[in-house]
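Action item from last week, closing it out:
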Amino acid sequence: METRTSRKLGVTVVAAVIERDHQVLIGQRPRWEWHGLKWEFPGGKMEPSETPRQALKRELREELDIDAEVGEEITRYEHQYPGKPLIQLIFFRVQRFSGEPRNLAFEEIRWERPSRFPAYDFLDGDLDFVRRLARGEI
């Protein structure tokens, strides 16, 4: 039986669903990183001194060189990869930003229609969210 203490939260990860012209920006993790070449949403780990929105604004500057207006929270849930601490994932909608996204952290970035997401190899922690986006439930 799994207890709450065995599922201690490790980190909080924030991610952006950046929308433009009915498409969403996704990034492919660098090949040398953990889960290399898997697709994900831009974002990253929240620092202890940050709120989730502050962390996402910082991450989007670092990864894409954009100044984002972080919108509504879409969803949050917990996920645990085998042998790793439990993570909390928080997804936010981003519909406004200044600057043109530049790839500063990924193997590749792409604008893609959510209906096409099932064709991409996303991180396991994102799969349920990706399926719901693809079906138009979010």
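Closing note: Strands lie at 9-20, 23-28, 39-40, 43-45, 67-79, 86-98, 108-112.
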